[in-house]
């Protein structure tokens, strides 16, 4: 019998993770024999855990909250997209070195443009939040050349820092993309209208909780997208529909697509994601 490909997902908490089911589905498509376990890992034992996993024949690891930034410092080499994001969600062995990459932005853009038919070029986009997820998706969104990208965060200083750090890595003037950062104040939010509004805050992890966005924000919005995934519509999605957004989506498609990109990095195989997109995992 073939030796099992040893994969894992690490984070804290980790019991809720759907990664084992997703990657088992991908592996079954190619009859690849995998072992995919969840491990509770903290920042204190992260580096030691990673070194020992890979020394013990590990092939690849998915990284989730709250380790996405800390894991970057444990890698020997990092990809360009992880460098731009200052975060990683996957680490694997490449030429005997620990290589970190970030597939979150690829996953979101693929879900928006291919699964939801929402091309980003020339569009006005609002991102709510400036945490690890926002950092992961913004470089990929900028690559698609929107007309304008606005980032609004509860703690304004974090949005301004994110913008400053990105500007030190990417020449935004050269791209012609208008990029603004600010607070969640009505003045900042309502000074534009947006084709797409993306909620990258963690508010939806608390069911029923609301950011308290002005209803007028969603007037003219083609798509309101919540990175969080759940069977029920999140409060953000419900408010967007009530405010006039044409369409809403949760982040299940992004989860599948970022996983597929990670699976490709680990195996060189490109899974068919359409098989999973319409079948939420319990
Ligand atoms: P994070 O680094 O902890 O950042 C949390 C963000 O949410 C911060 O900007 C924070 O603002 C904001 N926030 C928290 N509570 C808020 C509130 N009550 N009102 C307004 N803003 C609030 O978390 P993350 O890693 O970015 O993850 C964010 C979300 O993305 C999570 O729901 C996660 O599940 C989801 N996600 C989904 C995928 C996918 O594949 N679908 C991938 C990655 C992440 P402050 O700076 O003011 O604290």
Summarize the structure.
The mean pLDDT is 95.
Give a structural overview.
With 282 residues, the protein is of the alpha/beta class. It has two domains: 5-103 and 253-275, Leucine Dehydrogenase, chain A, domain 1 (Rossmann fold); 105-251, NAD(P)-binding Rossmann-like Domain (Rossmann fold, 3-Layer(aba) Sandwich), CATH 3.40.50. 35% of the residues lie in helices and 21% in strands. The protein is built from eleven helices and twelve strands. It has helices at residues 19-29, 46-55, 80-85, 104-115, 132-143, 156-167, 172-175, 186-189, 235-242, 252-267, 274-277; strands at 5-11, 34-40, 58-63, 77-78, 90-94, 97-101, 124-128, 148-153, 178-183, 196-199, 223-226, 247-249. The strands form two sheets. A six-stranded mixed sheet has the order 2-1-3-5-6-4, sandwiched between helices. It has a six-stranded parallel sheet with strand order 9-8-7-10-11-12, with helices on both faces. Strand 1, helix 1 (19-29) and strand 2 (34-40) form a beta-alpha-beta unit. Helix 4 (104-115) crosses helix 5. The longest helix is centred in the last third of the chain and has 16 residues, at 252-267. NADP nicotinamide-adenine-dinucleotide phosphate binds at residues 65, 104, 107, 129-134, 153-155, 158, 200-205, 211, 227-229, 251, 254-255, 258.
């Amino acid at each position: 019998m073939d030796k099992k490909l040893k994969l894992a997902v690490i984070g804290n908490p980790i019991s809720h993770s759907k990664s084992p089911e997703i990657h088992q589905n991908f592996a079954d498509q190619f009859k690849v024999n995998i072992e995919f376990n969840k491990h509770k890992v903290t920042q204190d034992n992260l580096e030691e855990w990673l070194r020992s996993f890979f020394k013990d024949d590990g092939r690849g690891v998915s990284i989730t909250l709250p380790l996405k930034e800390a894991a970057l410092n444990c890698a020997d080499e990092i990809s360009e997209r992880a460098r731009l994001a200052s975060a990683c969600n996957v680490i694997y062995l490449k030429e005997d070195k620990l290589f970190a990459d970030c597939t979150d932005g690829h996953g979101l853009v693929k879900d928006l443009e291919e699964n939801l038919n929402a091309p980003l070029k020339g569009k006005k986009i609002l991102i709510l939040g400036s945490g690890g997820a926002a950092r992961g998706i913004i470089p990929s969104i900028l690559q698609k050349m929107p007309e304008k990208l606005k980032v609004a965060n509860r703690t304004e200083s974090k949005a301004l820092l994110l913008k400053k750090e990105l500007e030190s890595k990417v020449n935004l003037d050269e791209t012609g993309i208008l990029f603004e950062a600010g607070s969640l104040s009505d003045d900042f939010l309502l000074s534009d209208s947006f084709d797409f509004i993306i909620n990258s805050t963690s508010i939806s992890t608390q069911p029923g909780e609301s950011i308290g966005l002005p209803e007028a924000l969603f007037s003219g919005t083609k798509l309101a997208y919540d990175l969080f995934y759940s069977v029920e519509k999140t409060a953000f999605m419900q408010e967007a529909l009530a405010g006039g957004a044409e369409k809403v989506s949760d982040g299940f498609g992004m989860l599948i697509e970022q996983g597929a990109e990670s699976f490709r990095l680990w195996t060189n195989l490109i899974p068919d994601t359409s098989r999973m997109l319409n079948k939420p995992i319990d």
